[in-house]
Amino acid sequence: MKQGIKDYPKRAIHPKMLQMKKHLLYLSSLVLLFLPLAVFSEEKLCNIAKEALHDAVRIRGLEQKEPVPCKLQNKEEVKGYLLKVIDEKIAPERLEAEEFIYKVLGLVPENFNYKEGLVDLYISQLGGYYDPEANHFVMAQWLPAMMQNTIAVHELTHALQDQHFNLDTFLDHEGRTSDELLARSAVVEGDATAVMTDYTRSLIGQPALKDEDNVNAMMLQSVLGASLVGSSAGVPESLSLMIVFPYTSGLRFAHYMLHEKKSYSALDEYLKNPPKTTEEILHPELVLEGKGGAIEISEEELRGDDTGEKWKMTFDDSLGEFLLSILLAVQTDDRAGAANTAAGWGGDRVAIFEHEDTQARRLIWYTAWDSKKDAGEFYEMLQRVLKKRFKSSDHKDHQWKSDRLSYRVLNKGDEIVLYADEILQKS
Question: What is the pLDDT of residues 318-372, one digit of tens each?
């Protein structure tokens, strides 16, 4: 069994996270707590960006192929951009399905507005962004000039990635699961965060990241900051964890490769052939060993014996090791136990079915594990989650009920299946 991540966030990322798919995954989730300083002109701030691009080229070792225009935006303009991206790039049906899944599994509260919450969380932690369609860098007008250099180095690293590896295609959500998108985002953001960190370390005479044994302290600072900002904005801890994952665990992944191979060129390989799961981001040694990847789960396995033809599958996805760990951690307050249990993840598939006669929805979450022992540990921890969420339960049949949903869990040896059925209200 893989070992749980010892420095796994104790409070607070991606997705996901959840993540806001392509463009929003470029946004820097740096937590900036300071008083506003004097407002500088666009020309002056964009001169900072020109210098930052030279620094990014020098550290990352990627040639600048074309100019990267710079512009300033205020908070309302940035929020407008985020909403535009969501409306144009993410199907409303997908957002609704994700919200339903997260609420059924207890990742977000029933009364939480998923779309608005994501936008508010990004705004609260935003330090600038690179737009891959317009190919320009946007600086946050409300930040002081003294903070702009570091953010610009991070975001302009994305510009270099885009010029060499086409980020628009790399982070396209079409045909990819949430787990794969979160893993890809971690490659992109971990790379840029490493470049930004090496830039700041060079200013104070510290050694390069590749010469450090670990990046645990840096990760913890980012996680704690994001957690504080997220909680003050009324955002569930699970979403704060998802958002910061690409930067923290992505940095750990990038550092692992830099430490092993001593060059940023090592990261190019993962922008050409990226990991497919967050398991590989959390356990980078699997990538170098040629291991990792998810066990595939067919629709036939997912349906089982009691989800027949009248049940139409309307949405399916894979949550992955990281989101599974969040689910367990935030609902049990057992961070170490959640990480160690999730480390036995082998694959998963979650789907929403709708009955053609009653329009009732059924959620099925099918998880596969590295061993029966790993599956048993998850089975026990999942029951702890359900018992905590629902006081009324039938422990003999492993069934639980809320006002609108009926839950049951099936242990199939090295596979665990959770069913959640909507309870139809009598008219």
Answer: 999 999 999 999 999 999 999 999 999 999 999 999 999 999 999 999 999 999 9
For residue 209, the 8-state DSSP code is G
Please list, in sequence order, all residues whose beta carbon lies within 8 angstroms of the beta carbon of residue 84, skipping any fewer than 6 positions away: none
Q: How far apart are CA 402 and CA 18, in angstroms?
A: 25
**Rounded to whole angstroms, how far apart are CA atoms 263 and 260?**
9
C-beta of residue 368 within 8 angstroms of C-beta of residue 344: no
Euclidean distance between CA atoms 119 and 258, whole angstroms: 33
Q: What is the DSSP string of 87-117?
A: HHHS-HHHHHHHHHHHHHHTSS-TT--HHHH
pTM of the prediction? 0.88
> Rounded to an integer, what distance in angstroms lies between the CA atom of residue 39 and that of residue 54?
24
* pLDDT per position as a tens digit, 369-388: 999 999 999 999 999 999 88
- Residues ≥6 apart with Cβ < 8 Å to 316: 299, 302, 349, 350, 351, 352
Q: What are the phi and psi torsion angles at 283 (to 5°)?
A: -130, 70
- Count the Cβ atoms, other than its own, within 10 Å of residue 398: 16
Which residues lie below 8 Å from residue 393, measured CB to CB, with a gap of 6+?
386, 387, 399, 400, 401
Cβ atoms within 10 Å of 64's Cβ, excluding its own: 15
Three-state SS at 419: strand
Name all domains of the chain by residue range, CATH numbers in brackets.
21-288 (no CATH), 299-422 (3.40.1000)
The terminus-to-terminus CA distance of the chain in angstroms comes to: 50
Q: Once rounded to an integer, what is the mean pLDDT over residues 13-37?
A: 36
Cβ atoms < 10 Å from Cβ of 301: 15
Residue with tokens 């645990």: 216
> Checking DSSP bridges between strand 136-140 and strand 70-73, what pairing results, if any?
parallel
Residues 6 or more apart whose CB falls under 8 angstroms from that of 54 comprise none
